[in-house]
Specification:
The chain is mainly α. It contains 7 helices and no strands. Helix content is about 65%, strand content about 0%.
Amino acid sequence: MCLNNFVNRLQSFVHPCFDHTVFYPQIKHLEITLAAIEVSVLKWKPCPETILKQVAFAKLFFSKLIETTSLLKKFPLSHDMAESLVHKVIQLNVRTFQFYNTHGEPNPEKRHYTHILFNFMYLLRSCRVKFNGLSNVPLATRRVFEDQISQLEKTLQDLETYLPQSQGSRS
């Protein structure tokens, strides 16, 4: 499997939402594939910087999917509002990978990039308001929420800088 196909495969897991139950059984195979890609890339002398950056992006993306799988197991959708909001923010966070091309660069030419980005920003604000309105949230749950929402906010702010100037910020 070539590097572009590998990243495309990872992106297929996050759109329209990340189903960790589908991803989890494939981790070992994907891990072996990524290792083989990395070995073949490192044989190039000298290896182009763009390829090294793409491998780094693939590794980051893959590790984020594994981390997200673990978090979603700890915070499944439930009747508990705090846990459900944590689940939603974790999902949004991992789904931001759909905004990038196979080289790990934001891709504002992607279909509906602007609309989806503004929708994510709205959902971030909505989740934050709802979560802050909750009382008696366990500290561990609050910590995961704050960590995830902070990561999401930084990512969305970065992605927003790639919008054409005429579309401006709505945040």
